[in-house]
């Protein structure tokens, strides 16, 4: 059996079984982090026990994938607390691979929570929480430009919304959930490098 059947360098595959609905893959960590999450100061740990985690992974060939992960439980010598060792590429808290969590976040932009939950064999609440984190991450990466020529317009998408554009660049700067004057003022105040704006064109009722 190929050791890279999962294509996850952080896991070593030990066994593989297939049912009508799922793939079951037994694996162990190729490496672990011994840093204690409780005190955050010590790597001085000893093996306390072994715990099998049932970790969800990306669906494959129309079937759910479950990794039976043999993860060690460690005891921190400094604070005397136990914890499950962190495993590369695995979200221990959610018991799913990091790539599945990322896939769920991306898919949530196009499909309903119910559709994704069914494909990944997780509950809708988990999908919703992952989507919220995914969007928050995108917002952190988003860099809003402040153009010299700023256009302020409105568009109706369910309700009227204020739209801000870069007139010269023919690009969208941002869109608000409404067109209230208080929202527009708050947005303008939030712009960085406001001194760059030399012209403003507005077409709103």
Brief description of this entry?
The protein is of the alpha+beta class. The chain is built from 4 helices and 11 strands.
In terms of topology, how is this protein built?
Elements: E1 11-18, E2 22-29, E3 45-60, E4 63-76, E5 82-84, E6 90-91, E7 96-97, H1 98-107, H2 113-120, H3 124-141, E8 149-157, E9 159-166, E10 171-175, H4 181-190, E11 199-202
Parallel strand pairs: 2-4, 8-11
Antiparallel strand pairs: 1-2, 3-4, 4-5, 6-7, 8-9, 9-10
Description:
The protein is of the alpha+beta class. The protein folds into two domains: 11-140, no CATH class; 149-202, no CATH class. It contains four helices and eleven strands; from the N terminus they run βββββββαααβββαβ. The protein has helices at residues 98-107, 113-120, 124-141, 181-190; strands at residues 11-18, 22-29, 45-60, 63-76, 82-84, 90-91, 96-97, 149-157, 159-166, 171-175, 199-202. Strands 1, 2, 3, 4 and 5 form a five-stranded mixed β-sheet that branches. It is elongated and about 65 Å long. It starts with 10 loop residues before the first strand and ends with a strand. 16% of the residues are buried. The mean pLDDT is 91.
